[in-house]
Amino acid sequence: MSTDITPNPEKPPEQWVTGQEPMTGPQISYLQTLCREAGEEFDSTLTKAEASKKIEELQSRTGRGKDS
Question: Does residue 8 form part of some domain?
Answer without folding.
Answer: no
